[in-house]
Specification:
Length: about 180
């Protein structure tokens, strides 16, 4: 009988903990995310969508910017999943690598800019709570973002090269057919 009581207490306790977390989100992170999203949308309107898009198109000419700055800005300004639409500024042979870089940026950007991928925030906050015991969450977020830039550049360049190799193979097959 004691086992059943502990089991039922644990079962309901799980939902009570979930409810406490939910209330914490409603009074903490959700208003923050809404405010950040409103700010970013206002900033885009103030700068002008044409200027933002023109700048992005210019940046696509340089591979370092194509696989670092553009994914970062796309995630920052458009958030997930709209950030993938910036791929329209790239040549067809660069789109797969851009997508790979952008997908990889969605995790590290959350530490400093939680509005960019709100769904990922809950995973990051779990890691950050443990890190907060030995360091600052801002330090973790910055290190996470800097490491992310290195990773997305490497992934973008490698993916671009793989796409080029596979495309050349397809062209050879088409010529021989």
């Amino acid at each position: 009988m004691d086992f059943l009581v502990k089991l039922s207490d644990g079962f309901i306790g799980m939902f009570q903990a979930g409810a406490e977390t939910f209330v914490g989100f409603l009074t903490g992170i959700i208003p923050l995310l809404i405010t950040l999203i409103l700010f970013i949308n206002a900033l885009i309107k103030i700068i002008g969508e044409e200027r933002v898009f023109g700048f992005m198109q210019m940046c696509t000419k340089f591979f370092v910017l194509r696989y670092t700055l553009i994914p970062f800005l796309a995630c920052f300004f458009l958030t997930n999943p709209m950030c993938y639409t910036f791929g329209r500024f790239l040549k067809e042979e660069h789109k797969a690598a851009y997508y790979d870089s952008t997908v990889s940026m969605l995790h590290p950007i959350v530490g400093l800019f939680p509005h960019a991928n709100a769904a990922e925030l809950f995973v990051y906050l779990g890691v950050a709570q443990g890190f907060a015991k030995v360091g600052s969450q801002s330090e973790l977020g910055l290190r996470y973002l800097l490491a992310g830039f290195v990773v997305i550049l490497i992934r973008g360049v490698i993916t671009e090269r793989i796409v080029a190799i596979l495309s050349s193979r397809d062209k050879k097959k088409a010529v021989n057919a």
